[in-house]
Every structure is written in C-alpha cells, then in structure tokens.
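Supplementary notes (optional reading)

For those who missed the lab, this is the record we used. Protein: DNA integration/recombination/invertion protein. Length: 369 residues.
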Amino acid sequence: MKDRITSAKIDPATGRPLPAGVEYRGKGQYRARKRIAGGERIHQTFSSAKLARRWLDTTSAKLELGQFEDTRPLERQTVRDLVDRYVCEEMQTRENDRKGHIPSILQDEIAQLALVDLTPMAVRGFRDRLAEKYSAATVVKRLNLLAAICQHAIAEWDLPFSKNPAAATAVKRPAGADKKRNRRLIGDEYDRLLEAMATSPWPDDVTFVQFAIEQGTRREEALTLRWRDIDFDRHALSLEKTKTMHRAIERGPEIRPLTPGAARLLRALQAQRKSARPGDLIFDIGSKDAFSVRFGRMTKKAGLRDLTFHDLRHEATSRLARIYTNPLELRRVTSHKDIKSLDRYYQPHTEDLAAKAIAYEKRNFADKD
C-alpha cells in the first residue's frame, strides 16, 4: 500500500508541498502535467518533485517563446519503425542498400531505441561499433543512409527532431573514407579480360563487358536495357530505371548519348539474334549475382588482381574523357550526379597526361627552337 497512487498535495518523501502541476504517484514517481495548444495535456514522470518542477518550468518557458515541440511522436516510435517505413516507401528499387546497409542498422542495438533517444551520442556509438567490423567507406555510407532517413522523416513525415541526429555536422565521419579507387586496365589486361570472358558459357558476357567500357553504364542499368530503349537513329539510349526510381517517375526516362563503340556492339549483337523484339532484354547473362560470380572467376583466370566489374566504370569514364573534354558533356554520358562524383571516376594514366604536355610543347614551341 506504500506505493499507492495518491492525490496528496504533500510530497511523502520530503514532507513539503508538491509544486503545482506535479502529482505523486508512488515511490520515486512524480508525474508533471502541462496543458499545451489546443487544450491537450502532456505529461512526464520523474524520480523527484524537483526534477518534475524543472521540466514544468522549462516547458512553460518554451511555450511562451513559441519554441515548444511536442516530442510524443518520437517517444512512440523506434528507429526500427522509422527504417522499416523508409524501406517500404522509398527504397523499392535500391536493392543493394536493402540487402547490405539496411540490415546493418536493424541488427544493431540502435534499432531498439525510441526516436526520442536517437541522439548524436547514440549515433556515435553506432558508428564506433560499425568501425570494428567495416571499412571507413562502408561506415560513412551507412551513417549517411541513417542521416538521409532522419532528414526525410523531418521533411516529409513531420517528425519533430530538433536537428538531424545523424547529420555529418552532428556526428564526425571516419577519416580516410573518401579515398579514391583508381584501378584501371593496364597494358594487355583488356585483351586478357576479353579472352577469359570468351570462355564463359554465357555468350553475351564478352559483349556485356565491352559495352560497359564503351558506354560507361552501371551494371544494373545495362542489365535492364531492352531493345526498345535503343534509338540508333538518334544515337541515344533510354533508361527507365535508375538508382532513384521515384525521381525517374517524376522526370520521365533518362536519355543518354549512345557512344559509337557501344552502338557498333549492339548492332552486331542484334544481327546475331534470331529474334530481337522491342521488349526483349538486350543482354542474356542470367542474374546479376551469377554474373558477378563468373566475372570474379574470369578475372582470376586472366591473372587480373583486384579488379571488380565496377572498376570498368572508372575505365569507361577515363576513356570517354578523351572524347568529351567538357566535364558537363561527359557527365551527360556517364550520368554522374555531379562534378565531384565524376572526378572520382576519372582516372587518367599519368603517361597519357605527360604525353599531352609533350605534344602541346612540340606544337607551340617547335618553331621557336
């Protein structure tokens, strides 16, 4: 009976009167209640009357200054609830993130936190746990994804975060994550790669690799291409699916210039087909996961170390830069989101840059000698 809820105006623990708006509800339980806009009451329970009164005073001051935010929606939802909703509504086409980055959030203890407890300190703990298992670049990607989810919740779902708790301004990112990968094909590696791919049981594997280097498409983009997406007359290809499908729906299909080398490959492939109906997929290479396994085996067979399929996009961008010297034009072909992203993929060989300087010197200073 000692902990029975009471409406007494005296604090049993101190014998002093309870502050207005504070109710004793049992040992170590003091509920403070405050009326907010619309006549609705909010309340919180504290371990002492002093803490309850402090909350009342702070809340009253915020109401008077127009700075009060009702955080109850943050108390009723967990990080897991927030992430699950984002995946359901915003990530239908982002398969890699759903398989890789999202589970790393949901499997961490941070997923159990109420959103009101999702503070920069909690996010820093999440960052440090990730850093024990993953590279700096992977940690940054997962922190940025969590920050993007929180920002979307603030902008679109009106969740009352005072600030984004996972933003880069609130949680420092690991050093060294922005290091460029500069793997390109060197010497006879291109020929060795094609020779190895030619032994694949899937005959389109060779053309798929060649197309990736000629056109600079991402693997998923090339896999979804159909014959109706190619306009040989206009030298263009149309991509219905992108990494951000909701934007593609708003803007319509993305049209990119079709490079001459890619066009030649596609015309040759079309001529080999018994049937090339508009709705047919262009490349018959099976699933992307099966292709990735084959590609890994073939690169080892060719003696190529540390080469991934995505490295071919670096190769393609660097080759295309010789044709499209204007970076804005190059970006139209490769579809990098900005110049900074484009710069990460442009990896010229140092001897090529040196050769340009030598050629320039010969053109401009030969007569003077």
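If you only remember one thing from this example: The two ends are 107 Å apart (CA to CA).
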